[in-house]
Amino acid sequence: MRSLNRRKKLLLLTVGMGVVFFGIYGLGILIPEEWVAGSFLSARQPPSLAHPFGTDALGRDLLLRTLKGLSVSTTVGLIASGVSAVIALLVGIAAATGSRWMDGAISWLIDLVMGVPHTILIILISFAMGRGLKGLLVGIAATHWCSLARLIRGEVLQLRSQQYVAVSRKLGKSSGWILIYHLLPHLLPQFFVGLVLMFPHAILHEAAISFLGFGLPPEQPAIGIILSESMGYLSAGLWWPAVLPGLTLVLLVLLVDNLGEQLQSLFDPSSAQE
Amino acid sequence: MKGTLGRLARIFLTYSVKMITVLLAVSALSFALVSQSPVDPVQQYILGFGTAISPAQRAQIEDYWGVNKPPVERYLHWLSELLQGNLGESLLYRRPVADIIGERFLNSLGLMLCAWILAGVIGFTLGCVMGMYRDHWPDKLLRRMCYSLSSIPTFWLGLMFLLMFAVWLRWFPIGFSSPVGLLDEEVTIGQKLYHLILPAFTLSLASFANIALHTRQKLADVLNSEYVLFARARGEGQWTILRRHGLRNILLPAITLQFASFAELFGGSVLAENVFSYPGLGSAVSAAGLNSDVPLLLGVTLFSTLFVCVGNMTANLLYGIIDPQIREVGA
Known about the structure:
Chain A has 274 residues and is an all-alpha fold.
């Protein structure tokens, strides 16, 4: 292993984690719906070789349901955090390059969104959209952009005061040209790292809102729904529907979180060569 | 001292203006969202009766509620009633929303206060330990733990505690804020606290990582400073330095940060209260949303915004007292 330096090792680890993540994701999508439907004969079985996660009250295999649920949650998380990150990029650039008036208005808007607890705001949006997938996506996308937008605003303000930007301006380049050729290349790593770091939050919020009953419809195999169903059987001593799917969710979130941190240290010039 | 007071008054005024605009905007926004909802409020109201009514009676209700008036007019009407303290009547509980919020907020406040103090104390202590042992194994271990904890969903953590301590070990009750089958007057403070421990602990675990990491960073900055180097040269021990130089510099910022975290606290309490069937605002708002109880939903939204704003205002005022840089900008 001596031929590999730290950066290469980190790169390999990142790629490995990415493969695991997309493996879980693909597996969940590929599992056909019919496999998940179980029979009442095999209801409420504790974990065994045939059903590693046990079965739920309707006899469905919980491992399959969990994998399927994770891929649904991942899709929701990916779309919502993607939209949210794009909003953050646009808002951040607008705040930093626009007039002072615009900056003040955006800072007020951020205060507004941060002023309502996110759970409550997502419940409201989901209620307005008649619950379901759409409300969930809009709700999560509308609440997660604030901190990244602030970060990007700061970054743009700092970049704008750089000399090469001033030189470029003196050479007669337009603001749009400077934005595309000088600012965006610096912002893109920030954007992607912000996106990956936002993603676990989005998944956690998705699970929480589905758990409360505002997210996906109950027949969907989302993690939040499995866990909220499991709550009813908890006092009867059925531990596996609550423990194992939740644990899988935590592991997935930890995986993505680590992935984000590694991408950050790979992209960040000050730590990239460590 | 007069300068300090003047500055604080200025912060208070600016923030109050901001708070009022934010509250107004939230009221308009949430009203617009709710009127977008495909759920028919009149239908929900009639469903609550449990009997069928004639179209004429339905039209009468619609007329009384002003359902067919333009949204702006309805909003202004609602807002004027709101300013007089009338939040409307809950469809779900058939009582004035203000009463429900007042009653449930007391329960929630108990829960959130316990969790808030617990999170602050645990977080600050762990942060101090991490800062003192920076880059040694206690720091690495605790830091890993803090990062991992923020990846664990609050409600799942609550479920696990419920399973462990209530179902298997039977140390704690499985839910509610008081024993089943007792009247409100018969419940003692001790019983209430006993029912509070598990949800409060869950809620605090969900939020202490932030404060711990912040305290660690601040303490590390302090320990790297020249006055600490001088103190070391004078022969002060690690813990004396922490007591004399560390705590003074990091305690107030930590408290400020705690005040600024009211939004997460409230959001977490919605989940914790639902897991533990705790009768607070959080379980009321999810019940309101699920049962299309619009007045209650709007009331709790506004109330939670007010709650967060008060926390932020306190944080801003504390910043004004402690941070010399902000002090100069303000002056």
